[in-house]
Amino acid sequence: MKTLLIHALNPEAGLVKQHFPKAFKKISEPGMELLELNSRFDILRTGIGLRRTEAALEHISDSGYYGRAIQFGVSGSLTDELPVRSLIKANQFSALDHPTIKLERVNHLTLPVFKTVNFYSSLEVVIDEASRAVAIAHDAQAVDMESYAVAQFCQAHKLPFLALRIISDRAGESTPEQFRQHFKVASKQLQNILLDHILKPKAV
Prior knowledge:
The protein has helices at 14-18, 50-57, 129-137, 147-156, 175-199; strands at 2-7, 24-29, 32-36, 41-45, 66-77, 87-95, 101-102, 115-121, 142-144, 161-170. The protein is of the alpha/beta class. Helix 2 (50-57) runs parallel beside helix 4 (147-156). The two termini are 17 Å apart.
């Protein structure tokens, strides 16, 4: 079965897509896109946020078409133990006014060291200390805006799921400045890992 790769922003997958010049566009709508990279991988761009991610995943009408899902992108750190460019993964996900999800069907891959942490998916970008405190209160060490929706989808469809992220900033007041400074480099670092350990070995 195929692997469904999932990301939010165009730059988070730009390097990956360069390696698949024959990618076929299956669905394209404002804010979302589903491409067939090759016979083994499709890639879905959801756009930013839980609502957009949920809407994008509604286009996956036959979840049985995929054998696993891998989400990737950048994340904000909620602890000093996760400096910028830390590699992280999760199987526990939370969001405001939603039950915590702890996936039992986790996709295991041989990868460089990714620290396992809990993710919190915020409805808004965390750019102040009050929002940071809310995320921390959900027993999370990293914050994003999409992974809870993907975890919920994978749980509902019994689809093995792996969420891989890289820290681009300290979530809080310094987020805008640090994100601008580190986003591109961090995103390329994660994409290179995907290419070397997941996509390249059998991609051609």
